[in-house]
Design goal:
CATH architecture of the largest domain: 3-Layer(aba) Sandwich
Largest sheet: 7 strands, parallel
Bound molecules: nicotinamide-adenine-dinucleotide, magnesium ion
Strand content: 15-25%
Number of domains: 3
Shape: globular
Number of strands: 11
Structural class: alpha/beta
CATH topology of the largest domain: Rossmann fold
CATH superfamily of the largest domain: NAD(P)-binding Rossmann-like Domain
Helix content: 40-55%
Order of helices and strands: EHEHEHEHEHEHEHEHHHEEEHHHHHHH
CATH class of the largest domain: Alpha Beta
Radius of gyration: 20 Å
């Protein structure tokens, strides 16, 4: 039986993973499931899947978790140390699906036990890509991409020589506000930014889709994971979200990955890799779809793309600054402190402000240094928000 753990089990990716696991009773032994606030879901899944341990990130919820698991034989634990301990328990496959920089330490802990890490937590690659790949090599662990674009690229590269790749084209839906007049974007509300046209995802990534910060993160993720140059990476708006990305080779061929917008495909591909297995996703009717559209993204509308290029050019731990600033700006927008368009302003101001810590950002990449950069960048972003909110 394959031993598996799911970090971020109560989220959108976690629940899609559990959906696949539950369809194959007896095939998996579940080691650890982790969550945060949704204790009822965590306990219910941990009992249904007979997990060894369920962990909530929030120590204040430990008693609730213990009560919910009472008599089930599932161990309960809480806090960041418990998360890392759970991720370190021997498993053959670990899903890394915690949202945000909080997913870094558990993901690294999983790699250190030499497992196969199915990586949905793109923040790990953006903040500490080089270190993550190095850790995987050191511990003979494997990383499989779960972000749909990166799964698409990975699949297009099977059997190919990376040196024959000319370019990688990442598709973007454009998010909820893609057809809004630019001058109205500043007024967009949380509810409007959350109305994603194609994908059903967690709240934070859905908002990041509307600003294209999600795509900006994915450009950096592509650079880190596939080791291509920033110039080789293109972004194209593709409103239907059916082509998940394309790889262009030196003979002019473009390999596109086409499928329904259902994360169970990318999760299932990583779960069954290197083989393919039947998955319960929709089969596309191309004649009914009829048409696929593409257009160049307007960087005036989506400054996040320009910022991603600046981050890649700056190098070092600038990715950690970018992610921390973006997470803080998103919190500011969700809390109503700043408007939609001010999220990009906040990230740009933070990147500028952090030049005073240039030595630290250029220092050796370690998890501690990344955490320190993350901490300082959050402070700088908060100061930028306070500045703007006061105007
Ligand atoms: P989500 O918000 O639905 O779920 C997040 C999970 O992380 C939950 O289990 C939550 O309990 C846990 N969590 C939240 N804060 C935590 C903390 N501080 N410490 C520990 N655990 C914490 O998010 P999601 O949409 O499932 O996204 C998860 C990751 O996958 C993100 O990195 C996202 O960018 C990536 N991703 C998601 C999708 C998607 O379709 N949802 C697609 C591609 C990539
Ligand atoms: Mg994606």
């Amino acid at each position: 039986m394959r031993r598996i753990s799911i970090l971020g089990a109560t989220g959108s990716i976690g629940q899609n993973t559990i959906d696949l696991i539950k369809r194959a009773p007896g095939a998996y032994h579940v080691v650890a499931l982790t969550g945060s606030e949704n204790i009822a879901q965590l306990a219910q899944d941990a009992m249904a899947l007979r997990a060894e341990v369920a962990v909530t990130a929030n120590p204040a919820r430990l008693e609730d978790l213990r009560t919910a698991l009472h008599g089930s034989g599932v161990e309960a634990a809480a806090g960041t140390t418990a998360l890392v301990e759970a991720a370190s328990r021997p498993a053959d496959w670990v899903m890394s699906a915690i949202v945000g920089a909080a997913g870094l330490a558990p993901g690294f802990a999983a790699l250190e036990q030499g497992t196969t890490l199915a990586l949905a937590n793109k923040e790990s690659l953006v903040c500490a890509g080089r270190l993550l790949l190095q850790t995987a090599r050191t511990h003979k662990a494997t990383i499989l991409p779960v972000d749909s674009e990166h799964s698409a690229i990975f699949q297009a590269l099977v059997g190919e020589d990376i040196s024959t790749v000319e370019r990688i084209i990442i598709t973007a839906s454009g998010g909820a506000l893609r057809d809004w007049p630019i001058e109205k974007l500043a007024e967009a509300t949380l509810e409007q930014a959350l109305a994603h046209p194609n994908w059903d995802m967690g709240q934070r990534i859905t908002l990041d889709s509307a600003t294209l910060f999600n795509k900006a993160m994915e450009v950096i993720e592509t650079r880190e994971f596939f080791n291509v140059t920033p110039e080789q990476i293109e972004v194209i708006i593709h409103p239907q979200s059916l082509i998940h990305s394309l790889v262009g080779f030196n003979d002019g061929a473009l390999m596109a990955h086409v499928g329904p917008p259902d994360m169970r495909h990318a999760i299932g591909y990583a779960l069954h890799h290197p083989t393919r297995a039947h998955l319960p996703v929709e089969r596309l009717d191309l004649a009914a779809i009829g048409q696929l559209d593409f257009r160049v993204p307007d960087e005036g509308r989506w400054p996040a793309l320009r910022l991603a290029r600046a981050v890649m050019a700056a190098g070092g731990m600038t990715g950690a600054v970018f992610n921390a600033a973006k997470e803080t700006a998103l919190d500011g927008f969700i809390a109503g402190q700043i408007g939609f368009a001010q999220m990009a302003d906040t990230v740009a101001a933070t990147l500028d402000d952090m030049t005073q810590h240039a030595c630290l950002i250029a220092d050796t990449m370690t998890l501690d240094n990344v955490a320190q950069v993350d901490h300082l960048a959050r402070q700088a972003a908060q100061a930028a928000i306070a500045n703007r909110a006061g105007h």
